Amino acid sequence: MIPKKAMVLAAGLGTRMKPVSDTLPKPLAKVDGKALVDHAIDRLEAVGVGDVVVNTHYLADQMKTHLAGRKTPALQISHEDALLDTGGGIAKALPLLGDDPFFAVNADAFWLNGPYSALRRMADTWDDATMDGLLLLHSTVDAYGYTGFGDFCCFAGDDVLRRRSEGEVSPWLFTGIQILHPRLFKDAPDGAFSLNVLYDRAIDAGRLHGAVHDGEWFHVGTPEGLEEAETYMNLRYAGNKRR
Q1: Among candidates 56, 69, 57, 17, which has minimal Cα distance to 224?
Q2: What's the pTM?
Q3: Which of 1, 41, 48, 219 places its Cα 20 to 30 Å from the Cα of 123?
Q4: In this predicted model, what pLDDT tens digit does every residue of 14-58 receive, in sequence order?
Q5: DSSP 3-state assignment of 230?
Q6: CATH number reported for the structural domain that contains residue 166 in this entry
C-alpha cells in the first residue's frame, strides 16, 4: 500500500551549495526548469501521496512563498526556529504525519525512475512486520556526481542493512529517499539529532532494510552536481517526454 503522507526535508543551510545558497534555499535551486523541492513533491504526488509536510528554517520565507504557489498536494509547514537535524526535524513533525508508515525525502534528492516508479517499488517492498525503515539505495559507481565510499552493505541473501565498516568500500549509497514507521522514533532523543541514531538502533534489531534503485540518481548537493544534473537532462531529454 502506498503511504498517504510524506515529509520533505528542506530545512538545511545548504552550505556545500554556496554561492548558490547564499541567497536561495538549496531546495529552490532548479534542474530542468523546476525547483528541486518540486521534483520531489511531484514524484510523491504521482504515486498517490495526498499530504506532504515540509520543514523549513533557512530563508524560510522564500520556501513558504514558493510552496504557497502549489495547489496540490495538501502541504503543511513544520518550521524550525533552531535546526533540528534530520531525526529531530521528523520527530517534531510526527503529529502531522500520523501513525502509519510515511515517505521521507530529502528536498535535494533528484532521481529518475527506472522501468517502474521508485516510490511505488518501495511501497511494494515494505513489510510492516519486519521493517521500521526502508532506504532506497543506489550503486555508487553509477551515481552522477558522487565520489564517496558508499553508506551501507546488505547481508548475503536478504535486504537487511549494515553499516559500511571503516576502510571498507560499500557498493551502495543512501539516496535520501525512504519509508519510515513512526515506531522508529519511540524513545528518540529530544531536540536536534541525526536519523543515523535511529538507523543504528534499527540495524541492531535487524529492522532497517534497503531497496536498490533501478533508475538514475544525481548528487546535487554542490553547484557542480547541480550543473551535471542539468547537463544530463538537457542532453538526454531535450525535446522528449520526461519519465
Answers
A1: 17
A2: 0.92
A3: 219
A4: 998 999 899 999 999 999 999 999 999 999 999 999 999 999 999
A5: helix
A6: 3.90.550.10
